[in-house]
Specification:
There is one protein chain. The protein has 8 helices and 12 strands. The chain is α/β, with parallel strands linked by helices. The chain has a 6-stranded mixed beta sheet with strand order 3-2-1-11-12-9. A 6-stranded mixed beta sheet has the order 4-5-6-10-7-8, with helices on one face. A hairpin with a 4-residue loop joins β11 and β12. The longest helix is centred in the N-terminal third of the chain and has 14 residues. The two termini are 33 Å apart. The mean pLDDT is 96. The chain binds fe (ii) ion.
Length: 241
């Protein structure tokens, strides 16, 4: 089975459209989303409808969650909270119901999917290093788990009790190891590469390939300005931070 695994779309329609065109060219059987369909960028409804219409297997991200459960002051930055408030006001009831009904985890075909970590999802903590990854691995029965949340594509590998971290373009999933793969972000990359990121995973060959797709950043930036969203959200897209 060929899976396209995308996440942290964050209401960026131009990035999502470019990624979906790239996916159509390579051909996949199933779309999977590691969460954060909405938040930050100005097209949450359109992105949500596209993801929903593709029959995507989705898990809930923190922005999806906080859009339907308004955040407390400690839960996120002022910029993120302002964008959540804007997003909530620009969705319909059926969108909110969809976001509220998303599961936190999914498992299929020796694959796990969660937004941030399998350790526990209540506080939306990040997997930043090998210690965080090791705590997630303790809850991972499948050979590979796909995550997002940091917007930085990296792979953690656990072999004979040892966890290592690496950047990647392709990964061969050897059966003696477990893998925790961050698929990067479609709509707000933070690895200093402004191109949209997503992953193709083939469960027959057990190969993971990271894809990068350029899109019209300037068009998204213009929409952010017109929407009155914080200008930093436009600026950061140009730098991939
Ligand atoms: Fe995110």
């Amino acid at each position: 089975v060929r899976y396209a695994i995308l996440g942290d779309i964050h209401g960026n329609w131009e990035a999502l459209g470019a990624v979906l065109a790239d996916i159509r060219r390579s051909g996949v059987d199933q779309h999977v989303c590691v969460g954060d369909i909405v938040g930050y960028n100005p097209d949450p409804a359109r992105c949500l409808e596209q993801v929903r219409d593709l029959g995507t297997l989705v898990v809930q991200g923190n922005h999806d969650f906080f859009t339907v459960h308004p955040p407390g002051a400690m839960d996120m930055s002022a910029v993120a909270a302002a964008a959540i408030e804007w997003t909530c006001a620009n969705l319909e009831d059926d969108h909110r119901q969809y976001l509220a009904g998303l599961p936190k985890n999914r498992t299929f075909d020796d694959v796990s999917v969660v937004h941030n970590t399998l350790e526990q999802t209540r506080h939306w903590q990040y997997v930043l290093g090998v210690d965080d990854a090791n705590r997630s691995f303790a809850h991972q029965d499948s050979g590979v788990c796909f995550i997002g949340h940091t917007h930085v594509p990296v792979v953690f590998k656990k072999k004979k009790g040892l966890v290592t971290i690496a950047r990647y373009k392709t990964i061969e999933l050897d059966p003696d190891s477990k893998f925790l793969v961050n698929v990067g972000s479609v709509g707000q990359p933070r690895d200093r590469d402004p191109r949209a990121a997503y992953v193709i995973y083939d469960s027959d060959t057990r190969q993971v390939a990271l894809k990068r797709v350029a899109y019209e950043v300037g068009r998204t930036q213009e929409k952010i300005r017109k929407a009155g969203l914080p200008l930093w959200l436009a600026l950061r897209l140009a730098f991939g931070v």
